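Query protein
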Amino acid sequence: FNFCFKILKDIVAIAFLKNFKILKNPKFNPEHFKKLIISRSIINDFDRKGNYKDRYFLINSNSEKDTLFILINSGEKLPKKINKNVIIVYQKRRSFELLFLLKYLLSKIISCNFSIYQFFYKTSSSIIIGEVIIKFLKKEINFDRIKSILVPYEGQPYEHLIFEEARKNNKKLLVGGYDHSAPHSVPTHLMYKSYSPDILFVNGTSQVSFSKKFLGWPRRKIRLAPSLRYPEKLKLDLQNKVFLPYNIPNDTVVVDEFKKIILDEPNLNLKSLKIKNHPMMINSKKHLILKSKLEKIIKENKNKNKNKKRNNIAIFIGATTGVIVALEKKINVIHICFDSIFDSYSQTLWPN
């Protein structure tokens, strides 16, 4: 019942995904491009001239003239200017559209030849953005001119949908996926499939071994690449911080475990301990409420302990790669898990 409820909830969520729009420069010319980069953006990724700096690849749209950047916008704000080689996919307004949901589901049922299996296989809120991008590509892009597609790869359904459609139009197309983050504890989303990228770029030898042994990747399709987001010299402000996750399935677990940490770690410097929200969830009510609860706990306890305080500690919540990044930076880590089997790191899977 719980599984069926989650599937139903995901399908109903499609009703909120109607009003997607495409923002492009008036001088946009699709004939100029040989490469596609499909990534994400927020307003802070753009300068005043409309240049986009990709946080995953650390490249600027102004220096990659033959590359078309197709960006999925996060947040409500859009830049006033964008380069001629930048396309932004954004949602104009978010509201529940029952008629849109019914029409969409009916079209899916018909396109699946009334097959229940095919309907559930091809129907999800996770692929809507992919369908929007595919519609744009079919209308604007000559795939015979495109040599490659590169994405900060997360194994998302919409990514696979785009890869599948692009390959239909150009058999010689090279699809690359860059695993931009430190390794997740159990990264089943990166399992090798027929529609996976032709090349997967990873940041460490541990990921190469893991991808071959547990995720089924052929060795010839894995490339070792430097970490662009987390180079060795990069200084990160991780000390004495509590990092909220993207998804919060159970805030009670977080509050209860955080209270235990406050009691069990008497050397925590509570006076300078800060709660950091997830950058993609700045306006999420659920995240803001949890942030407020944790700040209240800190406030109530910050004057109780008089021992020598430690600042070199970071607290992470849920399934997050931040744990590994912090350990690489020689920071002591406390990890609050919603599910200790899937969130925490196993010595068996990750011996290094």
